[in-house]
Amino acid sequence: KNVEVFQVLSSCPINVDESGKKTTFSICGEVLFDGGPMPWSDYLKIHGIMFRLVKETGVRDLSAFRNLDDAIHRLPGLCFSGIQCVEEGDCDEFEAKMMDFIIHDLVTDARKKVYAAFHHLGDASKEGSISFMVSKGLSGATASE
Residue 109 CB: number of other CB atoms within 10 A? Predict the structure, then answer.
């Protein structure tokens, strides 16, 4: 894939974990591009996914995670499959990985908020799933073809 890559200074919020480590959505660039910079177009897709998830669930801080280090290990699959879901509407893998993430990495209160926001969680083709939301309905359209 031939893409232009830009280093961008941004006012995007930075999360600080208990140890003082700062993270942003660029962590997907670290896992997808071997520590190199993430193409701006991919950053915008990941940011869009995260923004919509926070908006729908209200889950917005690091206290939602049981263990941040464990959650970070799931990021390569989530980042890659999330971009694929947004771009192509091929979201079954993303939805399954999100389910795994929610079950294993979120504390009970955060998990309840996600379940309340997404009444068809686990079925990428249905409105009310995370995939349907982040793909803006594309996941449902590709499932019916």
Answer: 10
The two tokens of residue 66 are: 């049981």
What's the predicted TM-score (pTM) here? 0.77
Contact between residue 114 and residue 107 where contact means Cβ atoms under 8 Å apart: no
If you ran DSSP here, which 8-state letter would residue 64 be given?
A: G
Most confident of 67-71, 85-89, 140-144: 85-89
**Which residue blocks in the chain are alpha helix, DSSP H?**
27-32, 40-57, 68-73, 75-88, 92-105, 108-117, 130-134, 138-143
Sequence-ordered list of residues with C-beta below 8 angstroms from that of 136, at least 6 positions apart, any chain? none
Least confident stretch, 18-27, 33-42, 78-87, 109-118: 18-27
Question: What is the distance between the alpha carbons of residues 131 and 138, in angstroms, rounded to a whole number?
Answer: 9
Those residues with Cβ within 8 angstroms of residue 51's Cβ, 6 or more apart along the chain or in another chain: none
